[in-house]
Specification:
Elements: E1 5-6, H1 16-25, H2 44-61, E2 67-72, H3 75-87, E3 93-98, H4 101-110, E4 115-121, E5 144-148, E6 150-151, E7 156-157, E8 169-172, E9 189-193, E10 204-209, H5 226-231, H6 241-257, H7 259-280, E11 285-286, E12 297-301, H8 305-317, E13 320-321, E14 332-335, H9 342-358
Helix pairs in contact: 1-6, 2-6, 3-4, 6-7, 7-9
Bound molecules: 4'-deoxy-4'-aminopyridoxal-5'-phosphate.
Amino acid sequence: MNRVYNFSAGPATLPVEVLEQAAQEMVNYKGTGMSVMEMSHRSKAYEEIINNAEKTLREIMEIPDNYKVLFLQGGASLQFAMIPMNLMTKHKKALMLNTGAWSKKAISEAKKFGEVVVKASSEDKTFNYIPDVESLDLSEDADYVYITNNNTIYGTRFTTLPDTKGKPLVGDMSSNILSEKIDVSQYGIIFAGAQKNIGPAGVTVVIIREDLIGHADASVPTMLDYKTHVDNDSMFNTPPTYSIYIAGLVFEWIKKLGGVSAMEKINNEKANILYNYLDESKLFSGTAEKKDRSLMNIPFILPTEELNAQFIKEAAAKGFVTLKGHRSVGGMRASIYNAMPVEGVQKLVDFMKEFEAKNS
Ligand code: PMP
């Protein structure tokens, strides 16, 4: 089929079954005589697409009834502003944890709307760990507590949540949504850009507890008020129709495979294949602290810049592509989202073993 193993951090690999179904339905979607891209978002056929996407997401994430699901635009980055605009209403203050470049961006955006107290940071070690959440004192008054659940660049993830003392917890799950089972009721807001575990870029999923909706100041632009999108079922303006359609197919794909817990099992298997090898290798080393390692993004390095470059080049020639790490960490990063098959990770590790044998 000439498909490569694509380890891109995002936009990222999608399930081939989903791409094939979309290809089949591309020119004439279910007898409508048109593609989903050409369809009015107010049409019956499209209404069914967006409603089913929401329904399946609710099912696979077990989203409680007192949460709304929104399909928005502007990427996860717009949420960095929408969250403080909608939530910083009483204390005008947020407690935030700084675990990487995306947290930093969220922090600097939130500061435009109120006070931000950074309660913990792992910047001292290039964000290669998650600060100890159990020792955090989050008792001070604030409108919400903010974390980045999975840190795409550094390959770390939260495995325990901070005690927010009743304040809503906001979680950026852009790079780990649907990868492992989570309890939605522990959050006030969960948000995720689509282009890693959900579908194509262009849509951002926001899951928001009902009591947090409708408190934005009157000065907040209509498009940036969650209430606008809740009141209009994500159709206040034209939604990113095709991205939502593909997202719906991905949700169905997850459901068919056995849901999020089945994904989690496969993801653990994949991550273990790579981590076990990194732990035993004398040439490659992982960069994140063991206890905080991500299931989705695995950064690793070789002893020299020359070897890193050589590895990336040789890997690409064998069909393992987009393995270059983020410039702030260097080396390599394998993003192994839901759609990366076990076989892709196993073959990558086989290739790494060959590389190690040749270069040590
Ligand atoms: N948060 C995290 C954890 C991310 O990985 C990314 C994108 N890589 C973003 C936010 C920003 O997402 P977007 O490009 O959709 O604005």
